[in-house]
C-alpha cells in the first residue's frame, strides 16, 4: 500500500533535517580535528548556534508528525541487498532504541519530569540532594557572596594570600611539606616575617641563571614563550 503524499513529504522533511544536522556536526568535527590552533571562540559559538538551530528544527518536525513516525514500520523490498547491508537492515527493522540510547532517553525524561514538578511547586529531590527554589538559591548566593568576601579581606589583611604555604601546612609544620622545588622557599618573606636580604635575592638570581643555562645546553631557549595549551593537548592525544 502506497503512502499518501503528505506522509511522503513529512518523511522527506525529516530526512532533510537529519542531513542538515549531520552535515553541521561533521563540519564542526572537521574544524576541531584539522585546525591548528583551534577555531576561535566566536567560530565555535556560531557553530554551536547552528547545531542548536538544526536540532530545534528537527524536534519541531518530529513533534509535528509524532503519530506518523511512531506508527511507521519499514519493510524491505525483495531487491534490498540484505547480504551486504545486513547492519543497516537490522537498524531499520529495530523497533526499540539501542540500550545506551534508551538509558539516556529515560534519564532525560526523568529529569524533565522532575523539573516540571519543581516549576509547579512540588518538592523534588534529585538523587540525595533537594532542589532549592529560586528564592532559596538567591538567598544562598547573597549569603555566600558576603561571607566569602569577608573571608578574602581577612586573609588578605593577614598576609595569608601572599604566603608560600597554606594554612593547613603552617599548622602541621612547613618542614614536612614536599614542594618538589630544588631551592628552599624563603619562609621569612611571608606570614609576618622579615623581607629577603640582598644576598638571598642574588642567590635566587644565580639559581635561575643556572637553570636557564641548563635549558640552553639541551637545545631549549628559555626566552621563548611556553607552548600553547591547545598544542600540548594535541601532542598528548597524538592528533
Automatic annotation (TrEMBL):
Q: Name one GO cellular component term.
A: mediator complex
Q: Which GO terms describe its molecular function?
A: RNA polymerase II cis-regulatory region sequence-specific DNA binding; transcription coregulator activity
Q: Where is the composition biased (Acidic residues)?
A: 201-210
Q: Which Gene3D superfamilies match?
A: 1.20.58.1710, 6.10.250.2610
A biological process from GO: regulation of transcription by RNA polymerase II
| Superkingdom of the organism of origin | Eukaryota
Location in the cell: Nucleus
Q: Which residues cross the membrane?
A: none
Which parts of the sequence are annotated with region: Disordered? 179-239
List keywords of the entry alphabetically: Activator, Nucleus, Transcription, Transcription regulation
Its principal location? Answer: nucleus
Tagged with keyword Transferase: no
Q: Which InterPro entries does this chain map to?
A: Mediatior_Med8_fun/met
Which Pfam families does its entry note? Answer: Med8 (PF10232)
**What's the subunit arrangement here?**
Component of the Mediator complex.
Indicate the family of this protein.
Answer: Belongs to the Mediator complex subunit 8 family.
Q: In UniProt terms, what function does this protein have? A: Component of the Mediator complex, a coactivator involved in the regulated transcription of nearly all RNA polymerase II-dependent genes. Mediator functions as a bridge to convey information from gene-specific regulatory proteins to the basal RNA polymerase II transcription machinery. Mediator is recruited to promoters by direct interactions with regulatory proteins and serves as a scaffold for the assembly of a functional preinitiation complex with RNA polymerase II and the general transcription factors.
Can you name this protein? Mediator of RNA polymerase II transcription subunit 8
**Which gene carries the instructions for this protein?**
MED8
